[in-house]
Amino acid sequence: MLRRLFRALPDTPRARLLQLRMHTRDAVRSDARFARVDTPHALPQRHAWTQVIHDTPTAEAKRHNLRLAADALQRTRIAPDEVFSFARVVGPPIASRGYRAGRTLVGGEVAASIGGGLCQLSGLLYLASLECGLEILERHPHSLDIYTDATRFAPLGADATVVYGHRDLRFRNTLELPIGFACEVDAGQVTLSLCASHAPARRSIAFIAEPQELHMLVTTVVDGEAILQQCYRTAADA
Known about the structure:
Elements: H1 2-8, H2 11-29, E1 45-52, H3 59-74, E2 77-78, E3 83-85, H4 86-90, E4 101-106, E5 109-114, H5 119-131, E6 135-138, E7 144-145, E8 170-172, E9 179-185, E10 189-196, E11 205-211, E12 216-222, E13 225-234
Parallel strand pairs: 7-13
Antiparallel strand pairs: 1-10, 2-9, 3-8, 4-5, 6-8, 9-10, 11-12, 12-13
């Protein structure tokens, strides 16, 4: 009953309640120092990751949503030992904040929802964190692989789904220098850059996919060592 009433609330009050719950939970469970959105950082760009944005009916909404999130990202400086939270930095992706309806996965099915497309940015941040040796604190893969070789924009296993108030991407800056990120979005691609006073070392990352009877098994390998295995259902099996 309460869940139905909550879902019936307009976006803005629902987002405020989710934000309150998130901050209350963090105050009780964590003593982490979270990076905050402030003025644009002036750190130089050191490493970059680029992914294609395919031309789909929702591509323009996706570009729009990514640019809104990119602005908050550019205004976030992450000091050593601070924690980056995608939810805290980007905030609620709701219509009153300018976000548009884009493609997303809801309950294991492809649907249109406000803020759709932001998972491409969270996936890029996850990939950058892995390569630069940042400590991943929270990350959730998608349960369903909806892409084909022709439509895939990132390796299977390099994703990080975000659902405001429920699923977050969080990592700790374990480097001995402040870092930041910049994101540029154009018609055909999105580029994420890690920014710092000097370039941190990059690790070798591979995602090895093996077909199983009912799913795809993906092993994440860092500098030759397997650190994670995860399963994805394919659209054909969903």
